[in-house]
Write a structure and sequence with these properties.
The complex is a heterodimer of chains A (381) and B (231). By secondary structure, chain A is an alpha+beta fold. Chain A has eleven helices and 14 strands. In chain A, a hairpin with a 2-residue loop joins strand 9 and strand 10. Classes of the chains: A alpha+beta (381), B alpha/beta (231). The complex binds adenosine-5'-diphosphate and magnesium ion.
Chain lengths: 381, 231
């Protein structure tokens, strides 16, 4: 019986682990999709440095080697499919010191960037750190104001409303962006023109994010059109990277499903064999029950009740263990930063599956037990 | 009035090496309140007859009438109910469930009745006191001596007050002195009106009974009367 419980636990653990990892991968992937405000990234043609932006590896982004000229912004608006272009958000990136601490400065046009990054949670109220501005795209920001990434804000110990200094200029912290798990966390976001001044790169930008209204539009064509207008740049379609990622996740999901099915089959076999063995071992006991007046259904019920108890134990401990295993192996397996969700329906599913498997696999053993001939069972006493 | 009537019962087993005739035409009447011994050498068919009387082993031919019920005409589930209501078994080698305590073993026959657990416990406790084990209710079988286990087995057999009590070699696994104590217990139960049918090959036990039926090679040989039944 102990062996049986352990078997059940291992089975359910495996399934819960795989299922939970798949699930959180999908959630994560969903977030990624939602967070791709831009469908295109325009970066200077350069070969050496690599940078990852928004979790998507972008080859060829280099901060200091080459820059794009500000005039590129307007040129984008001149392409044939210009109606499809929703937001153009240029940025200038550079290392600076804020209050004597190193930080990544991201110069942006607040209006455009905030329209694109609608999912950002920006805290603008020092008194209530968990209250977020409902809609970043509605925020009106002055060029004397900045936004801080969560890590940088913590490092500087600055809250909304306080001031920070860059060189001899001081800025008001308008808001703190809740952790995004990306470069922004350690950044200070300031007005593009201000950044160009501070970094001493007038009219220069490091990259442009472009979002197109693109349910129907031919993204490849727009990419080609922009490339033609801006021959000095690389134009990347960002979603493709995430789509490749999705394919991986889907493949993992199928793999997890296949493994789960195999584990379930093996699990039912283990339950079946153990219960058969138990019925054989307890032939005499069952003979006694029957002689005393237990009906066949009573005997079957005893066996099935035992199976149910074992299954419930196995299901609950399997779920708990599965969550632990998923928590510790998910980052390895998924190569992503995952949060493992404690979900009632996965718990209920685990319990349900183990009870169903436990009971189904015990039906035949219970039937065998019920039809034991009591006189035969008691014969070799 | 005859509580049991056995008519022309035969039993043939289909063993490995052809047919074995365990019983070859048995007729027997047992009155209410009797203490009857079935005596015979090993392999003579005693256990077979007891299991047929005990409604767990259908005879090849013939019929068994208990309290005007032809028990082998009942469906097998009905026959289980019949056993629950009419019969108590004391098996060879006690046959207690090893992982249940004494009182839980005694409660087993009550588990399938619709009595509350409290009531079951009270009934079991009362019977255990009757057999002299009131203070060992919570022990597991392996914490009890042979004689004590036998008493638990008897308590389990009589806990729901069955009209008939069967015992197969109840003293077989006990030393002489303990065996006598157990036979005394049976005799006491019989004096209270309990019908008892006991299988034995121990002649010393016969003095406790009212009547002995001798079996040889599946046939009843002779009957000896020792005393009239008490009631
Ligand atoms: N289930 C069975 N299958 C085959 N043969 C059996 C079976 N039960 C008993 N027998 C045979 O029937 C005969 C009587 O057995 P049994 O009633 O156990 O005798 P006793 O209890 O007097 O020793 C023996 O020869 C035994 O081998
Ligand atoms: Mg025998």
């Amino acid at each position: 019986m102990l062996f049986l419980v352990i078997g059940m636990v291992i089975g359910i653990t495996t399934i819960v682990t795989l299922f939970t990892i798949t699930k959180s991968m999908k959630i994560e992937l969903g977030n990624k999709f939602d967070q791709i405000g831009a469908n295109m990234l325009i970066i200077p043609k350069a070969d050496k440095l690599t940078l990852s932006y928004g979790g998507v590896p972008v080859s060829g982004v280099s901060f200091d080697v080459k820059k794009i000229d500000s005039s590129a912004i307007d040129k984008i608006r001149t392409i044939k499919n210009k109606e499809n272009i929703a937001v153009v958000s240029p940025k200038l990136l550079g290392g600076i010191k804020v209050n004597e601490k190193n930080a990544l400065a991201i110069g942006i046009q607040f209006k455009n960037e905030l329209r694109m990054k609608r999912w950002w949670k920006i805290n603008t109220d020092a008194g209530k750190p968990e209250q977020f501005e409902a809609k970043p795209q509605r925020m009106e920001m002055k060029n004397t104001e900045v936004l801080l990434g969560s890590e940088l804000a913590a490092k500087l110990d600055k809250k909304p409303g306080e001031t920070v200094n860059i060189g001899d200029q001081s800025f008001t912290v308008r808001g703190v962006i809740q952790s995004l798990g990306s470069e922004e966390d350690n950044s200070i976001l300031l007005d593009l023109t201000v950044a160009q001044e501070i970094l001493n790169r007038p009219n220069m930008i490091s990259m442009i994010e472009v979002s197109a209204l693109c349910n129907t539009c031919p993204i490849e064509e727009i990419v080609a059109q922009i490339s033609e207008k801006l021959p000095q740049t690389n134009v990347l379609a960002v979603k493709e990277a995430v789509e490749a990622r999705k394919a991986v996740v889907d493949r993992f999901a199928n793999f997890a499903l296949a493994i789960s099915v195999v584990v379930l089959l093996i699990g039912s076999l283990v339950v079946f064999l153990t219960m058969m063995g138990s019925v054989n071992e307890r032939t005499r006991e069952i003979g006694i029950f029957r002689s005393i007046g237990f009906r066949k259904v009573d005997v079957a019920q005893i066996i099935l009740t035992e199976a149910a108890v074992v299954s419930i134990l196995g299901g609950i401990s399997g779920y708990l263990l599965g969550m632990v295993v998923a928590g510790s192996t998910a980052p390895l397996i998924a190569q992503m930063d995952l949060t493992i969700p404690w979900e009632l329906n996965i718990a209920a599913g685990a319990l349900g599956i183990s009870v169903i498997v436990g009971l189904l696999a015990s039906v035949f053993p219970a039937y065998q037990a019920a039809k034991l001939d009591p006189s035969e069972a008691l014969r070799f006493i | 009035m005859n509580i049991i009537e056995v008519r022309n019962v035969t039993k043939t087993y289909d063993g490995g090496e052809g047919l074995v005739t365990a019983l070859g035409g048995v007729n027997l009447k047992v009155e209410e309140g009797e203490f009857l011994a079935l005596v015979g050498p090993s392999g003579s068919g005693k256990s077979t007859l007891l299991s047929i009387l005990g409604a767990i082993n259908p005879p090849t031919n013939g019929e068994v009438i208990i309290d005007d019920i032809n028990i082998y005409e009942l469906s097998s589930e009905r026959r289980a109910d019949f056993r629950s209501e009419y019969l108590g078994f004391v098996f060879q080698q006690f046959q207690l469930i090893p992982y249940l305590t004494a009182i839980e073993n005694v409660m087993l026959p009550l588990a399938i009745t619709n009595r509350s657990t409290t009531e079951q416990r009270e009934m079991a406790k009362a019977v255990l006191e009757k057999v002299g084990l009131g203070n060992k209710c919570e022990r597991l079988p392996n914490q009890l001596s042979g004689g004590e286990q036998e008493r638990v087995a008897i308590a389990r057999a009589i806990v729901n007050h069955p009209p008939i009590l069967f015992a197969d070699e109840p003293t077989g696994a006990l030393d002489t002195k303990t065996g006598q104590e157990i036979m005394d217990l049976f005799k006491t139960l019989n004096k209270e009106g309990q019908t008892i049918i006991m299988v034995t090959h121990n002649m010393d036990c016969l003095s406790y009974t009212g009547r002995a039926v001798f079996i040889r090679d599946g046939l009843l040989e002779k009957t000896e009367e020792y005393r009239k039944k008490v009631i």
